[in-house]
Specification:
Blueprint (H helix, E strand, L loop, with lengths): L11 H4 L47 H5 L17 E7 L14 H9 L2 E7 L6 E5 L6 E10 L4 E10 L2 E10 L4 E10 L4 E10 L4 E8 L4 E10 L5 E10 L4 E10 L5 E10 L5 E10 L7 E10 L5 E10 L6 E9 L3 H9 L4 H17 L5 H18 L1
Parallel strand pairs: 2-4, 3-5, 4-6, 5-7, 6-8, 7-9, 8-10, 9-11, 10-12, 11-13, 12-14, 13-15, 14-16, 15-17
Antiparallel strand pairs: 1-2
Helix pairs in contact: 4-5, 5-6
Length: about 400
């Protein structure tokens, strides 16, 4: 009698023998890489407050950005003429669209389904820094798509500077070519009424390095979800963030790093401060070390400084390892108030209490700002943080 051979299970749920719940067909996703992906809004279930991706987000305040119609036409931008860089609008059917990643949730898919043209920013060689400013997005619900490409062996800095009013759902793709070193700064200095949902997808080639820095200071609700796919051997990712939440402000970051090739490295550092009634921050960090990613070296951390009563900081680090052959992996999270010893030390040197507090907070946050390789922008952000701290005094 011939003996049949069953097909090998091809998902984590099948390998673990997980079946549908008795009260419905739902089977939990067992690994971060198996989340559903699609560029179509209707391929995702309706957003509900109990869902893992949305339970910490005030979805009623952004429902129109998740499900409503979005204006996907090109918008006003400003940028200098920098040699060895290209800034252009390309059609949504361009073959380069989708090369870094595609949405894993409904809001990002709504933005993807709605944009008409993508803003392409390309660098070659070693150009000077390039700043692209968006300051006239308007208050109507809008979709946007940005593609940043670093040619193989290139080295550059791209700053995406967002200001003014906005109701924006966008996707940002970042493609780092083989051996390229790219720094991308995403600066959210929106007006107080702005709402902004963004998903960033980065793909890093062999021996490439991406430094990705998120700075969120303005806006009513700002949710930026960066993901980095270390796709080539020896690729490297530094994902950094700094944020300051005022009364009633919601600032959210969900970071995902996927080590998918051998001998890759990543570091994630996000720091934030909260002040005022209803100030809220959310940070979720996911690191997945895939079965091929031998020799991985990774560490993620989130630190929050609470400056007043009535604030809330959620910080959730996650680490998933699918191979035993790694250099190191770890994560850390901490939320707390001032270090009284630092405060006492400064006051004992004759510094008034209010000034001492500002110095302690600025020293806490400045670590990330100093990683931006652009002195003019550094100075501008230090001034913005000082202004925030003046309001916290």
């Amino acid at each position: 009698m011939a003996v049949g051979t069953e097909a090998a299970p091809d998902t984590t749920a099948q390998r673990l023998g997980i079946v549908a719940h008795s009260d419905g067909p739902f089977v939990p996703v067992q690994t971060r890489s198996e989340r559903p992906k699609s560029t179509l809004h209707d391929d995702f279930a309706a957003v509900e407050a109990w869902q893992t991706e949305w339970k910490l987000t005030p979805i009623d305040r952004i429902r129109d950005l998740i499900d409503g119609p979005l204006d996907g036409s090109p918008y006003p931008i400003q940028y200098p003429d920098v040699a060895h860089t290209t800034v252009e609008w390309i059609d949504r059917t361009d073959a380069r669209i989708g090369s870094a990643g595609i949405p894993e949730e409904r809001a990002a898919a709504n933005g993807w389904s709605s944009f008409e043209k993508a803003l392409r920013i390309a660098i070659e060689g070693e150009p000077e820094s390039l700043t692209v400013t968006r300051a006239a997005m308007g208050s109507a619900a809008r979709a946007a798509h940005v593609l940043v490409e670093a040619a193989p062996q290139s080295k550059g800095l791209v700053i995406l500077d967002s200001r003014g009013s906005a109701a924006l759902t966008e996707n940002v793709e970042i493609v780092v070519g083989e051996g390229a070193h790219l720094t991308v700064v995403s600066l959210q200095e929106w007006d107080d009424d702005a709402r902004h949902l963004a998903s960033h997808f980065a793909s890093i080639g062999k021996d490439g390095k991406l430094t990705h820095i998120v700075v969120s200071l303005g806006g009513s609700i700002v949710r930026v979800n960066p993901s980095a796919h270390l796709a080539g051997e020896g690729s490297d990712a530094e994902l950094l963030g700094v944020y300051f939440a005022d009364a009633g402000q919601h600032l959210e970051q969900r970071v995902y790093v996927h080590h998918d090739a051998p001998h890759t490295r990543s570091r994630v550092t996000y720091k934030g401060a909260l002040n005022g009634e209803g100030a809220r921050t959310v940070w979720v960090g996911d690191v997945l070390i895939g079965p091929r990613a031998v020799g991985t070296d990774t560490y993620e951390q989130n630190r929050n400084l609470v400056l007043s009563e009535g604030t809330r900081a959620d910080s959730i680090p996650n680490l998933e390892i699918q191979t035993g052959d790694i250099v190191g992996a770890g994560h850390a999270s901490a939320t707390g108030r001032f270090d009284d010893e630092h405060l006492f030390y400064l006051q004992s040197r004759g510094i008034p209490e209010a000034e001492a507090r500002r110095l302690v907070v600025l020293g806490f946050l400045i670590e990330v700002v100093q990683r931006i390789p652009e002195p003019v922008l550094q100075a501008r952000l230090v001034s913005a943080l000082v202004a925030e701290l003046e309001g916290a005094a």
